[in-house]
Amino acid sequence: MGVLGVADTLASRLSRPGERVLVVDDLEFVDTETVAVLDAVRRRTKRPMIVTMSESSISPVAQPAVLSPGPEARVHLNPLRYEQVNELLTDILGSPADADTTARILTKSAGNPRLVVRIAETASLSGLIVLRQGQWHMTGETLWNEHLHGTVESLLEGLEPDELTGLQAMAIAGTTPLDVLQQVVHSDVLDRLEQRGLISVLEDLHNTVCASITPPVLADYFRGQRVLTSRRVLKSRITRALSGLPQESHVDVNSADSLMRVLAALRLERSSDAAAARHFHEQVSVLERQRYELWNADRSVSNAVALLKVYWGSPIDASRIERVLSQTLTSEGESCDLLFLAFTKALWGIHKGKGLDSAAGALRSFGEERPKWSAEAEAAELFLVASYDRMPENLDELFARLHDRHPESGVISSIRGILELYRFNPSAALKAIDTSGGLKGIPGIEPFIRGMALFTSGRAEESIVFALDQRTEARRKLDQFGMVSNTYVAAQALIYRGYFDDAEYLMGSVFAMGRPGFLVASLHDAMLRLAGLRTATSAILPAATLATQARREAEDIGPLPGTARGVYELVAARPLIPAVFDGKAAKLIQRQLERGYVLEAIYSALFFTCLLPGRKVLELLRQTLKEYAPSTSHDQLLAIAGAVVEDDYQMLGVLLEHYEPDADFYQVRMLLRGAFKRYAFVDNTIGAAAMDRAYSMFATRFPSPDEPVAFSSGSYSPLTVREIEIAALAGHRSNPEIAEHLGISIRTVESHISNALRKTGSPSRTALFDLVRDSAPFREKRPSE
């Protein structure tokens, strides 16, 4: 037909009545004849056109004939987040990937969807990832394979020789301050590479502007066998230039600032390039390698401790840990370092599945060999027993005896602080760390204790500010232990206050670093489950979530919220009969209390009560708070929950009318939404309507953009109770019949049906009926049934 013939045909299609638009995917691959057709059609019809192209192709040479006419809006899509990469991998590979594999693919692709798919597919083809027990796992330390050469070379197509050389220099140098990098790569070359989207520029915590290659898979290509200049000469030049890299300077962090400041900083981080997280991960890897090489040259206790402190937070290299624990020369060394070594050995034994008895035995042996530090060894053993078995009943007596033997010990005080958190005694936890003489042997645990104590004492906003400031400080110090532990605290507090999006970003930034080591591995698992809760509740059917990446060997009961599986698995199982849910939840909370994990029991009960309120769980919550936390203020929430489970609508109205916003504001909103679901699931139309009105009135009085977590009651969830009821009748009754049946006017019926059609996008009342008939609790049986 020729260009004009095709243009005539397409223009006639676009000129038909209705809203029509041209969409062109991957414009850079479209041939010139098709470009001419598109240009002609766009000019004739004046229809809008949406064009997608890779960022590096948006330049004056890329199909200007199509891009130039008419108004333009250029939109750069944000890179995929961790949870989105996980979903994409599950889709293309057929099964989810584990946490480390997901994190590595996200890092190497920089969140580019096309690269995510390509890296995953080629890694599977090359045997670099394998399917084991329903998850994809890496078989080695790299995802680079020969099938990626073509993908990378297509990204580099059209680059000038000096640009290719510049990229190779950056691959060797890693993330580097811009002023240092300009000594080996001309600034004009860097500008051109940045315009092509191949360089990521960021400002670090010392206000130093740094640059790195993006996506990082390009660096793997240049570090491989295919090089364009002499690596040895180039590396020598870069090493000389980098020798002038300024040393780190201490940055004071003011932790007493406002919530709005830390949230604004967090949201700025969210909107910026993801290179900062990759930069941190790269620096931690360099630090680990340097400390291992130092230990390998001198296998002293101090060098071993310096390396093992990295593994307490960063991904574990099992072979190196085994070597360090077995080959370190322990004949000399400070006692505090030897205690840390023994503590780490005990934790490693638990990590490897050797059991609690074996780990406790290692600590007892240390105490027998060094009687002056036997109190610390007993405290460490007490921590392991409390964390992996149950809380001892005579805790006060035990700590009094240990304190008498070594009153100045920071180790004993910090361990007491953790266990006081387990039994929901935040004031005692704060007192323990405030009166300690130092925290030798347990690095980075004090900020975690303080942040959790602030949160559990009802000071959620202070907890958020403190934990986010500590996270910033941990990033500056390359302390992944602090990054994970303080992110856990901040995420718990943010979600309690309803800041779900901020919490999910925070947790995703931790997931992108890979599975951490030792103690914080349980906090990592807790955040995976926490990140999966919204999907588990909102999906109409049980759905795979990030929680599938958490370790499966964890118990149902744990010392801190989310570190065990029980709460998440009960929610994910979706026992939507309220009485069944209430009974199972109450049994789980009873088991938590029997193990002495009061903190987990209270927050589990709060969550269950608000998600799907029930009489048994509410009574347990009241009793536990009365016994363990009489000063904690949840009075308004408990009163409202009591009115809900007792079906006392009049009292509920009074309580909501006099409600004053407090720390439980988000929980009250969640409770009212959960109360609606509770009635809807058992076909209680009157109760559901009352709860829907109560929630609407509360939301009008206290507007909030955050939608509370709630179980999905089906695909009709955007509809009100009355709209659901009328939609269930609309398929086989006329408007007058519905009006007569419900005792309302025909105009009201018409209004409700119109609103329901608009909300659901259904083309007809029959389609609306089909949408709700299988799941609506208000479904009316037809005469034939």
Structure description:
With 785 residues, the protein is mainly α. Helix content is 61%, strand content 3%. The strands form three sheets. Strands 5-7-6 form a three-stranded antiparallel β-sheet, sandwiched between helices. Strand 3 (129-132) and strand 4 (135-138) form a beta hairpin. Helix 30 runs antiparallel to helix 31 and helix 36 (721-730) packs across helix 39 (765-772). Residues 57-62, 225-234, 242-257 and 774-785 have low confidence and may be disordered.
Q: What would a concise description of this structure say?
A:
The protein has 785 residues and is mostly helical.
Q: Which key features would you list for this structure?
A:
single chain; 785 residues; mainly alpha; three-stranded antiparallel beta sheet; two-stranded parallel ribbon; 3% strand; flat
List unreliable stretches of 5+ residues. 57-62, 225-234, 242-257, 774-785
Per the principal axes of the C-alpha atoms, what is the gross shape? flat
What topology, given as strand order, has the largest sheet? 5-7-6
Please give the share of residues in helix: 55-70%
Count of beta strands = 7
How can the largest sheet be summarized?
3 strands, antiparallel
Please give the structural blueprint.
Elements (H helix, E strand, L loop, with lengths): L1 H13 L7 E3 L7 H14 L3 E3 L12 H4 L14 H12 L5 H11 L3 H13 L3 E4 L2 E4 L10 H8 L4 H13 L2 E2 H4 L5 H9 L3 E5 L5 E5 L3 H7 L7 H12 L16 H13 L3 H23 L3 H11 L6 H10 L7 H17 L4 H14 L4 H15 L6 H11 L4 H13 L3 H9 L10 H12 L3 H17 L3 H17 L3 H12 L8 H19 L27 H8 L4 H17 L3 H14 L3 H14 L6 H11 L3 H9 L7 H16 L4 H17 L19 H10 L4 H8 L3 H15 L4 H8 L13
Parallel strand pairs: 1-2
Antiparallel strand pairs: 3-4, 5-7, 6-7
